[in-house]
Amino acid sequence: MDLQHWLNEALANHEKWTAEYGSFTPHSSLQVDPALFGSALAELQDRLRDNYPFFHPRYAGQMLKPPHPAAVVGYLSAMLINPNNHALDGGPATAAMEREVVSDLAAMFGYGEQHLGHLTSSGTIANLEALFVARSLHPSRGVAYSSEAHYTHSRMCGVLGIEGFPVAVDGIGRMDLDALEELLKTGKVGTVVVTPGTTALGAIEQVHLVLDVARRYDARVHVDGAYGGFFTLLAGTDLAPEPWAAIASCDSVVVDPHKHGLQPYGCGAVLFRDPSVGRFYLHDSPYTYFTSDEMHLGEISLECSRAGAAAAGLWLTLRLLPLTREGLGEVLAAGRRAAVRWASIIRESEGLELYQEPELDIVTYFPRTDPLTLSAVDAAAHRVMETGMNAPVDPVFLSVARASKSAFAARHPEVGADADGARVLRSVLMKPESEDYLDTLHARVLSLL
């Protein structure tokens, strides 16, 4: 895709639109010396080199990759206008686009037309909003989440002043259903957070089974799909359908388009199955809501000012890569195929051991050491990551995840338990290019052992 061409088109269209309102003289206070601009820009470009190559498949560390060119062009097109999606007065066009993409996301999860939702600046804020509604509905009851859930849930419970209850996990890092039921029997929990795709291991928690248990105790269910939510597109083909189909019956769901949705940062989303929860947001502003009787997005959001450009970037992307298995789903499927194939290669490897079978696009593994103990594995995993990242030639970028002694014992009892736990190597293969680069990546990791 010729990004330069489409950026030029966006700039040209912006100039045509602004010309319709007549010319004016920019204020002198905004003028800068071209030479100074050039010097400052050169310094910026030089400083931006101090980044890891998130765009390249040799970067297989964290959940980072550049946005799709369509997202860049869509975002820039709206950013030049700088609409604010808090109120229709601040961004009528991008507010309409936001409603359209939120409707698309709701349909992907099986929500009906009467859902409520909006984009947010992050998955953290999206989860905060879901837990804010949970507190409003059950002010005297807390929130349960698995010990492998993202740390944002514990943090947001603190922000909201409600009690958080970590729940033990099973042998593959999913919420333990028996432990959950014992907690629910206490009556202390009003909402259960379930994660179809944990951020450390990519484990798919059993949404359908959690939902069954929670409903028996009058508890709401919130789905944290910030990382894994878009894998709904692969349900029934690449993935078992039950956990994903159950999201349609859950009370709320979060998803991050700035992860698998190919968007720049600043684009999360929260959706509620029951639109009546909007009553917990409603407020009035004496100067903001005046051009339309329609509900403004700011009336159903904890955030005020939000970039309308985020909606434009996502809208344009979904016009080209729709929320179908053949559209955006194929981008996710490529990364998952890479993860599954790498797991197969690692199983046959003499130098590496697979820590856990990948379910999505995260692969966890560790070096085989002599002696094979937790302390030796920990040191070797850290050394491989550091050596690979700092190699002056042919660097490779991995990450590590910390696994407890008990987690290792459940998966690899052959590893000597001489420490409380160990770091294992972790690779996120969320760029579809990882599929073709996999053999090179594997060979480079082996060379670091």
Automatic annotation (TrEMBL):
Question: Keyword Coiled coil: yes or no?
Answer: no
UniProt keyword list:
Aminotransferase, Lyase, Pyridoxal phosphate, Transferase
Q: Which cofactor does it need?
A: pyridoxal 5'-phosphate
Is Nucleotide-binding one of the keywords UniProt gives this record? Answer: no
Q: What is this protein called?
A: Aminotransferase class I/II-fold pyridoxal phosphate-dependent enzyme
Which family is annotated?
Answer: Belongs to the group II decarboxylase family.
Q: Which Gene3D superfamilies match?
A: Type I PLP-dependent aspartate aminotransferase-like (Major domain) (3.40.640.10)
Molecular function (GO) terms for this protein are:
transaminase activity
**PROSITE patterns, per database record:** DDC_GAD_HDC_YDC (PS00392)
Q: Superkingdom of this entry's organism? A: Bacteria
State the species of origin.
Answer: Lentzea kristufekii
Q: Which InterPro entries match?
A: GrpII_AminoAcid_Decarb (IPR050477), PyrdxlP-dep_de-COase (IPR002129), PyrdxlP-dep_Trfase (IPR015424), PyrdxlP-dep_Trfase_major (IPR015421), Pyridoxal-P_BS (IPR021115)
